[in-house]
Amino acid sequence: MAKVLMKGNEAIGEAAIRAGCKNYFAYPITPQSEVAEYLVKRLPEEGGVFVQGESEVAVGYMIFGAAGCGERVMTTSSSPGVSLMSEAISYIAAAQCPAVFVNIVRGGPGLGGILPSQGDYFQATKGGGHGDYRLLVMAPDGVQEAVEMTMKAFTLAEKYRNPVMILGDGLIGQMMEPCEFPDDLKTEATNKDDWATNGMDYRKSDKRNLVKSLFLDPTELNNNNLILKAKYDKMRKEEVRYEEYNTQTDYQVLIVSYGTMSRVCRTSIDLLKKDGIEVAMLRPQTLFPFPEEAIYNAATKENCKSVISIEMSMGQMVEDVERSVKGQREVEFYGECGGDIPSPEKIIEIIKGLL
Fold first, then answer.
1. 305 exposed, middle or buried (CB, 10 Å; 0-12, 13-18, 19+)?
2. CA of 335: how far to CAs of 179, 259, 329, in Å?
């Protein structure tokens, strides 16, 4: 399969089309607006629909409507836009509908800035909206992985009947890299007849399914939450993904990092190796479910003396790293969040300080 040079945002849009998504609703916000600019041209060519909502609040409920009909549907946004969708995301999760959300993260809190950030980790992995729900969250480190995760997200959303989020950052959306669109990630939509509002002909019924998130009876509400929890527990067993780097050496420091930041850390590890210093990295590819066991095993290797979470935030993933290490090693943190991405030389300085 030939590779094509594409901007990250545009590649995400094309990946959604290749995955069979024909419904895209969005509202423009930097640094992800190129997804909408790309899809407004491409979707009609594929018989799809793009509607720009009057706000991100409206977009969230457009997504709910399409998801409730069992259609493959996606939106993309950035940080404060996702905040406005959070109520609808909670409803979608409670009603057990599949949908894909892409957050190309910008700096915050508040209006913040339009440069890359990882400050939405809490929002993505700890809920963001109200109630006991979780998203399956994947974090690409570049354009190719953004393509693959976007295509896979639709299958996972339907497998669990749950929203899936791709958590990128502004740089991944704006960078250009060669990428390809794997045929083996194309899948047919799963059977939706038993739960979606449409499909009456298939069910041989004159009644539509009721898609709802309202459970006024306390026993019914509790049971629905138990069903949701069982799904999240299954995700923890079956969907953990991560990448190890330089873990076959006698490293003294383990870095945990994800997304664009992990690429900088990988360069730092290579440069340190030339100086005879072995450092390893574990990169979570799923932020929920989080690779707790893998991090614990990597952190507790005999020669590993320290673990450090390196992020483009003021320290959000570090809490999950600490929980994973379970007090067996000291867990340090380094982060920047103004939009400037720390250089490999800065990471090397931090690592040498630990040693």
1. middle
2. 29, 13, 19
Task: Please give the mean pLDDT across all residues of the chain.
Answer: 95
CA distance 149 to 44: 23
Coil vs helix vs strand at 234: helix
Which helix (H) or strand (E) segment holds residue 121: the answer is helix 121-125
d(CA 107, CA 128): 16
Q: How is residue 185 annotated by DSSP?
A: G
Distance in angstroms (rounded) separating the CA atoms of residues 169 and 264: 14
- Tens-place pLDDT, residues 68-100: 988 999 999 999 999 999 999 999 999 999 999
Which residue reads 């709802």 in tokens?
A: 212
183 secondary structure, DSSP code: G
Look at residue 267 and give its three-state secondary structure. Answer: helix
Q: What angle do CA 34, 162, 91 make, to 5 degrees?
A: 85
Residue with tokens 């673990």: 307
* Contact present, 269 and 283 (Cβ < 8 Å): no
CA distances from 162 to 231, 241, 259 (A): 9, 18, 23
Domains, the chain, in order of start with CATH, read 4-238 (3.40.50.970), 243-354 (3.40.50.920)
First to last CA, the chain: 45
User: Which DSSP state fits 69?
Assistant: T
Query: What local confidence, expressed as pLDDT, does residue 201 receive?
Result: 65
- Kindly report, residue by residue over 250-306, the tens digit of the pLDDT: 999 999 999 999 999 999 999 999 999 999 999 999 999 999 999 999 999 999 999
> What is Dmax (Cα atoms) for the chain?
72
Beta 330-335 vs 73-77: how paired, if at all? unpaired
* Strand duo 163-169 + 136-138: pairing: parallel
**Rounded CA separation 206/225 (Å):** 29
What pTM, to 2 d.p., does this model score?
0.95
C-beta of residue 137 within 8 angstroms of C-beta of residue 290? no
